[in-house]
Amino acid sequence: MNRIPDRRPLIAPSLLSCDFACIAEEVHAIEEAGADLLHVDVMDGHFVPNITIGPLIVEAIKRHASRPLDVHLMISDPDRYLQAFRDAGADILTVHQETCAHLHRTVQGIHTLDIPAGVSINPATPVALLDDILGEIEMVLVMSVNPGFGGQRFIPRALEKIADLRARADKRGFEDLRIEVDGGVTRDNAGDLLRAGADILVSGSAVFRSGDYASYIEALRGA
Ligand code: DX5
Ligand code: ZN
Known about the structure:
This protein has helices spanning 23-32, 55-64, 82-88, 103-112, 157-171, 190-196, 205-208, 213-221, and strands at residues 10-13, 38-43, 69-74, 92-96, 117-121, 139-143, 178-182, 200-203. It is an alpha/beta fold. An eight-stranded parallel sheet has the order 1-8-7-6-5-4-3-2. The protein is globular, with a radius of gyration of 16 Å.
């Protein structure tokens, strides 16, 4: 089931910070610059205060993308929309632990769609809450900001959470589990995040405001 590319680290620019008026050009440019995954932030104005994109826009992105779409669902009751986002072209679906009363069932629902499942935790959600789902999922997404907006400041506690998760996964033999980190990731903290055990770096505003996507992605990868 784990069809997330094996190269490590993977760089997943968040399209949230791209120019949405020129989304096709932005997708081509960021892929050309070396993006491994395209991170797509879906917000519903309910679980998080912001509203972003729905399946229609994911479908439009998909038409121009050659890299996998890493779809981060920051929405209440995600079960209602898994099929729609899969049909729109999601290659990985990540839900928030905080939104799922029956997380195991939600993960099964994603797997029924034949794609890898990720579970994300907010900054105030303890890693231990994932213990009983860790063996069932392909990815954990550690939020290093409170979800809802790009361009926020990195919360350093995420480093300890990543190291803790990596230790729990290693101890139980889940060497395929990928750890992704999202929020305030820059070339200045990327090295620490990779050393802590992150496999996938999401970066939005830092990449898209850099003026040189390729150099910035390379800096993240080599950090
Ligand atoms: C925040 C989103 C992030 C966001 C990251 O809720 O999940 O993916 O786009 O943006 P930066 O890198 O600017 O913090
Ligand atoms: Zn995200």
